[in-house]
Amino acid sequence: MGSAGLVQQIYDSFMAGLFIAAPPMIAAVIIGVLLAIILAAMQIQDQTLPQLVKIIVILGVLMIGGVPMSAPLFDYSRTLFASFHTMTR
After folding, report:
1. Dihedral over alpha carbons 86, 15, 4, 76 (to 10 degrees)
2. Domain residue ranges in the chain
């Protein structure tokens, strides 16, 4: 396997990880900003409430969309294992 193939494999693995990590992180950022605005308006200085809500939102996103989000990782894994014998030559 040449350096171009290695770079492509690294890029594919990065994109598969990004498809899994991006939706929960985007949801956590949106909820975090909204909660920060609400808590600042109410002058509440509790740090545990936003963390708890973000954890619940992340778990909800992973439970609702876990299977569709993990499909690129499964496809990448199948492709990687199927072409492993040609990559190691």
Report:
1. 10
2. 3-87
